[in-house]
Amino acid sequence: MRARLSPAVPAAGAADGGTISPVAGNRTGRRLVAAMLLAAAALDLARCGLVLMTSRHPSTAAGLVAAGIGAAALSITAAHGCRSGRRWAAWTALLIGAASAPQAAASGFDSPYTVPDAATAALGILLAVTILAAAGRTGTPGPNPELPALLERLRSKQ
Questions:
Q1: By CB count within 10 A, which of 12, 54, 97, 130 is most buried?
Q2: Considering the entire predicted model, what is its pTM?
Q3: Domain ranges within the chain, ordered by starting residue
Q4: How far is CA 143 from CA 13, 148, 151, 152, in A?
């Protein structure tokens, strides 16, 4: 017997050329990852505001603010792609999550960056774990041919 795939989950050779994420049918997972990416963007923008308030040199502040705005824009773009189920968005979210903790640790968790850096590190780890946990789920599981035989053996033992 052949397993049926859910209509929300496209086949491997779909007409879109394989650009849909394997977790495309998991709306809750996509929403969760998109929310985490938006939170990462908010933390990047909060860090930009702190840089503007505490920096003494305008050239270094401009560079840090530009990097923060770029990271926030990438996170928002990845969140949009994740909501629409694009495969590149899952890879981008994984890279953002994997890079968030070391990036937050590079600043040394000094005051006034302690709270945004700790939140960025924790969110990055959660984001990477969420993407990796969702990566294994593709489609609906098919019927197990050994299950009826196992059930018969269990019934005969009773």
A1: 97
A2: 0.66
A3: 27-139
A4: 22, 10, 14, 16
Rounded Cα distance, 19 and 22, in Å: 9
Residue-wise pLDDT tens digits, 16-55? 444 554 444 477 888 888 999 999 999 989 888 888 888 8
Distance CA 153, CA 66 (A): 66
What six digits make up the tokens of 148?
A: 């009826």
Distances (CA, A) of 62 to 9, 40, 42: 44, 20, 18
Interval 94-142: pLDDT, tens:
899 888 888 777 766 777 888 888 898 899 899 988 888 877 655 555 5
- Looking up tokens 């709270």 gives 115
SS3 20: strand
Q: Long-range contacts of range 59-68, CB-CB < 8 Å, 24 or more positions apart? A: 68/44
**Please, where are the H alpha helices in the chain?**
27-54, 58-83, 87-106, 114-135, 147-157
Residues in the chain: 158
Instruction: Check residue 86 and report its DSSP letter.
Output: B
Phi/psi at 32 (nearest 5 deg)?
Answer: -65, -45
